Amino acid sequence: MLNKEQNIFFNELAHIQDYCINVTLSKEDKYCSTEELLKDVTSEVIYRIMEMIDGYGGKLSKCNIVSVSTGEVINEGIELHDKCAEFLTNP
Question: How many CB atoms lie within 10 A of CB 61?
């Protein structure tokens, strides 16, 4: 049984999945290869998940990602969706 926050979290993920599938299908003709399509859709999904964690999703508040081994908050002082867009373009 999921608690309220977990339910919100997984509903947000389902919404991101549906959104990214629909956006990709609407521009399917622009892709020259399956690899190009997959790279675009996975980048979009990752970006949207980072946006959700940053608190820009629907009902979910900003979340922290904490390293279990060090206790360090990985997303402290940064916007994950901004960093991820930069990183996925130039790793």
Answer: 8
